[in-house]
């Protein structure tokens, strides 16, 4: 007989782990089953070496606050991202207090967030950005300097052997973080499985079929032995990274029409040389290259994984037709449908700079990539740095009523009209904003239950439903409380 459950989660990443944890807290009696096609969770985009580990709060990422001609800089997007990350911090803090998560240092560590730019134009922009953000309560404590001595104190590797007379500037927010989303994902799933949620690794979902009663028939098979089976669920979440598009297309929901994805891989330079690592404790972002997607903004990051610190620089774009590191070479072709072909072709025509950028990146060898690092760290030595392959990012392409096909940056939830199935497409800020993304999904897909869940959600996220940036006192109180619980006091 076909197994019946309340919820099926497809994919063993931070999104499924977050949604599963929320649902288990809200409805502990619901039967939840999670499927992961690999042998363990957090092996794709949630793996610490497949992402930059930045707790995205728009403290240092310039692409959340771009210059639009001569218009004044608008902090709205940066503030929105920061608000969302504060919800994640509050949720994690509550789970630490409840004993769901281990010691905070196993997944989050205090790491200042910096922005470093060169050239008169970018210096003027960064100063203007600072002047706007310093007035925002969630950006309290942001610092700005054009003084090499000050910047040298913040991040010595940026200033050593720097050419004299070169205009440069930096901002710094001491209250930034480094997050190991792999460790966080594992801890959430460990708690879920200990609480009765079933996790089936080495199980690949093959098809999704809507049933007359409104539920979904999920057909799957084991990756070893290829044994087929099926399960029926009232609600399905597709958190399968780049494969989410393929499964949503398979489901037949009309809401996925017009969507496609463009896969972009990445590499990072990494060093564990203790003499180098000891001189840099920060995440330093700069401006993206012309034509580069926002996810390719160069940054020199402190990473803490398994208690050990290292430095990463990148990303350097690579190309593979696969939607996942462990995907299929046919992914980019198999996504094509009559309804998304034209939008994807329009994206290709409208973004020649992106193609030029990708070609340029593919032509870089190890030495050229270390040369790129030297714009941040003039003293970088080739022998200290090795290349590691990061995860695949599936950038969303979709139909736009006014612009035709557009390349959509960020993350996007696609759900059916009846709320019985939903999936997540896109990339950064992704993991950092998993909690607010899943809260919105709950509101969209469970309208009948949502009002009844709000008291428990407020217990888990104390400022649930409030905007911190509109209340300086509340913003200070909330950030201080989560910093204390998570051990990330600057």
TrEMBL record:
Keyword Flavoprotein: yes
Pathway(s) where this gene product acts: Carbohydrate metabolism; tricarboxylic acid cycle; oxaloacetate from (S)-malate (quinone route): step 1/1
Keywords attached to this entry: FAD, Flavoprotein, Oxidoreductase, Tricarboxylic acid cycle
Catalytic activity: (S)-malate + a quinone = a quinol + oxaloacetate
Coiled coil: none
Alphabetized NCBIfam families for the sequence: mal_quin_oxido (TIGR01320), PRK05257.1-1 (NF003603), PRK05257.1-4 (NF003605), PRK05257.2-1 (NF003606), PRK05257.3-1 (NF003610), PRK05257.3-2 (NF003611), PRK13339.1 (NF009875)
Name of the protein described by the UniProt record: Probable malate:quinone oxidoreductase
Native species: Microbacterium luteolum (Aureobacterium luteolum)
């Amino acid at each position: 007989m076909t197994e019946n459950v309340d919820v099926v989660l497809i994919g063993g990443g931070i999104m499924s782990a977050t949604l599963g944890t929320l649902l288990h807290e809200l409805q502990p009696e619901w039967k939840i089953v999670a499927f992961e096609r690999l042998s363990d969770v957090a092996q794709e985009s949630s793996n610490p070496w497949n992402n930059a580990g930045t707790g995205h709060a728009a403290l240092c990422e310039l692409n959340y606050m771009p210059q639009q001609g001569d218009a004044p800089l608008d902090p709205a997007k940066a503030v929105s991202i920061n608000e969302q990350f504060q919800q994640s911090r509050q949720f994690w803090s509550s789970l630490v207090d409840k004993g769901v998560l281990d010691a905070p240092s196993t997944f989050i560590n205090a790491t200042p967030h910096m922005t470093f730019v060169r050239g008169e134009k970018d210096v003027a922009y960064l100063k203007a950005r600072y002047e706007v953000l310093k007035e925002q309560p969630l950006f309290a404590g942001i610092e700005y300097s054009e003084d090499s001595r000050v910047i040298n104190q913040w991040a010595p590797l940026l200033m050593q052997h720097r050419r004299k007379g070169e205009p440069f500037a930096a901002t710094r927010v001491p209250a930034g973080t480094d997050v190991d989303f792999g460790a966080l994902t594992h801890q959430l799933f460990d708690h879920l499985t200990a609480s009765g949620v079933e996790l089936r690794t080495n199980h690949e979902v093959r098809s999704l079929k809507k049933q007359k009663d409104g539920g979904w028939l999920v057909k799957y098979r084991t990756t070893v032995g290829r044994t087929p089976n099926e399960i029926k669920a009232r609600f399905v979440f597709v958190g399968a990274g780049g494969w989410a598009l393929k499964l949503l297309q398979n489901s037949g929901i009309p809401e996925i029409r017009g969507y496609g994805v463009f896969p972009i891989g990445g590499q990072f330079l990494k060093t564990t040389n203790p003499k180098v690592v000891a001189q840099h404790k920060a995440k330093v972002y700069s401006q993206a290259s012309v034509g580069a997607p926002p996810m390719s903004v160069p940054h020199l990051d402190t990473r803490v994984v398994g208690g050990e610190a290292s430095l990463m620089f990148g990303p350097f774009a690579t190309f593979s037709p696969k939607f996942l590191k462990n995907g299929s070479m046919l992914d980019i072709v198999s996504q094509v449908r009559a309804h998304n072909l034209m939008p994807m072709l329009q994206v290709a025509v409208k973004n020649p700079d992106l193609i030029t950028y990708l070609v340029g990146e593919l032509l870089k060898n190890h030495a050229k990539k270390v040369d790129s690092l030297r714009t941040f760290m003039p003293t970088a030595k080739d022998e200290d740095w090795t290349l590691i392959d990061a995860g695949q990012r599936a950038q969303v392409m979709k139909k736009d009523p006014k612009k035709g096909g557009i390349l959509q940056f960020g993350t996007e939830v696609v759900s059916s009209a009846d709320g019985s199935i939903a999936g997540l497409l896109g990339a950064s800020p992704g993991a950092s904003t998993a909690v607010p993304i899943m809260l919105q999904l709950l509101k969209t897909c469970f309208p009948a239950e949502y009002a009844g869940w709000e008291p428990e959600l407020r217990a888990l996220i104390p400022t649930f439903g409030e905007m911190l940036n509109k209340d300086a006192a509340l913003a200070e109180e909330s950030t201080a409380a989560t910093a204390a619980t998570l051990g990330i006091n600057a």
